[in-house]
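Section 3.1 - Work completed
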Amino acid sequence: MASLDLPGMRTTYTEATTWKRVVAFVLDLLVIDLLLTPFDELLRSIDSAALMRGAALPESLVAAGILMGVVALLYFGLFEYLLGGTIGMRLFNLSVKGRRTLGRCLLRNIYAIPIFPLTLLWIVEPVYLFWRKERLLERWSGTSTVERVTV
């Protein structure tokens, strides 16, 4: 029997759907939660009643919060820079498109650092994503999130 000379599979890229981006992000947050388990004991030791009475945050807690933000920033930034996407993104065939430099990948994820005014991005980013179908930080970094589709 003669074999068919059909073209091979082709990969094309389309705009990533919002629901896949959100689910991939939630999966990445679960991975980061596993990475941050060494901080669990410190967080449990906080006297929340004293904080409710207006006591200042302990310096160790502030430092730990910033360190946890740096770990999250490095998780997102390094995975996107080195592999083109995080674990959650790769599970949903999403990847970063554009000129991927370490600086651009870190800028895409600067919201992870829990200091003002960067914490405002926790509100701005989701609103901008649902409104414009792209993240504000993607626009600033000249990158985008795309879905790989094999046809």
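Second construct:
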Amino acid sequence: MLGSEVKQERQKEDACKVVLLAVQAHPAQIGVDTFAFLLKGSRSKKLAMMRLNGSKFFGSLFYHATDVIKNFIKQCLQLGFLTTVEMSVNAYPTPVLILTETGKNLLESKATSQVTLLAVKDRGREPKATPAIKETCEAMRKHGSVENAAAQRGIATGTVYDYLAEGILLGLIGIDEVVSKELQAIIKEAMKDNPERIKAIKTKLPENISYGQIKCVVASQNSIQ
């Protein structure tokens, strides 16, 4: 399989389709690790330098752990939907992902929903309540708003939302403490057709609703509690 002694769970969405469409949109451009960061919605400097944080697939699988997303991609490689080619990056050969003919045919036939990928977590990579996540959740409770929590911790509001989303996933803070019930209802309505694509959800919402608020609501739907 994908390494020894891993935890397996059935996926909640058509992860195969998301992975293949993302590779189709960025062929022969990046490798497994960077694709995983892209689909996670990571604030990686590398993504920013490559301007991939503007991709419509940025954060498409946000509520999965990065190692789970990597294993989605590896399963697509094993199944023959993807392959790698060597590209010279900074004078060094680097394997980057492209669709195979099998993968292209699968997308064209719209049969990706028939492919069940497993949400595989590498051993020892369970979600962790890091000090930054705990401190941010505590600051949110104490100061009552994301802006005040950001000022108190000396970090950007977007980073606060990222930590809060992780805290919600871990059950450290409730969604009602972060996003009003009114906004939650609006966001959930926009999630109905594209529950896994944060950018697609954002296009259906008013400008005043941020990506961070969307991430937190998505996280609340996938909380471990």
